[in-house]
TrEMBL record:
It comes from Cecembia lonarensis (strain CCUG 58316 / KCTC 22772 / LW9). The keyword Ion transport does not apply. PANTHER family: RNA POLYMERASE ECF-TYPE SIGMA FACTO, RNA POLYMERASE ECF-TYPE SIGMA FACTOR. Keywords: Sigma factor, Transcription, Transcription regulation. This is Sigma-24. One of its GO terms (biological process) is DNA-templated transcription initiation. The keyword Transcription applies.
Length: 163
């Protein structure tokens, strides 16, 4: 893959990078630094892209791995105060509030659980997620079920607090 083709693919799929940075990295300066690091890692690893999956899937996994590695190195485990997220001013559309609460719940998860639910919501199969994390599909299924229960419980509690 040449430089032109690589840059074209990165530009076409940069939304994937921004999506993951938005979920994992709250600081704008850190986002910029990590975006550059992801692109650098992608450039260094471009010859390892074997087209067994789409470029977007490959970039997603590389981006996620780079973000999580960076967070581990820095020792930054960011937890979001879910109660603070719920006390935000009322939003016009109830659906938007549900989406915001869902993202607040996801942001409050530890990195492994956040990775599982994010990849699940982004359409990865359980087998793909399990392979990425190095766990069995059965183990992943149990974890995913628990994460969904935790999020559902929190969303129900939030909705009951509105009445």
């Amino acid at each position: 893959m040449g430089e032109k083709e690589f840059l074209h693919l990165i530009n076409a799929h940069q939304g994937t990078i921004f999506h993951l940075l938005g979920l994992y990295v709250p600081d704008p300066a850190d986002k910029d630094d990590l975006k550059q690091e992801i692109i650098l890692q992608a450039w260094k690893s471009k010859d390892k892209f074997r087209q067994e999956s789409s470029f977007n899937t490959w970039l997603y996994k590389l981006s996620l791995y780079t973000i999580l590695t960076s967070k581990r190195k820095q020792g930054k485990i960011q937890q979001v105060n879910l109660e603070a997220a719920e006390s935000l001013p009322a939003i016009e559309k109830p659906e938007q509030r549900q989406v915001d609460l869902l993202y607040a719940c996801i942001a409050g998860l530890d990195d492994v659980n956040k990775t599982i639910i994010t990849m699940h919501l982004d359409g990865f199969s359980n087998a793909e997620i399990a392979a990425f994390l190095g766990v069995s599909v059965n183990n992943l299924g149990v974890k995913l079920h628990r994460i969904k229960e935790k999020i559902t419980t929190h969303l129900k509690a939030s909705n009951h607090g509105d009445r």
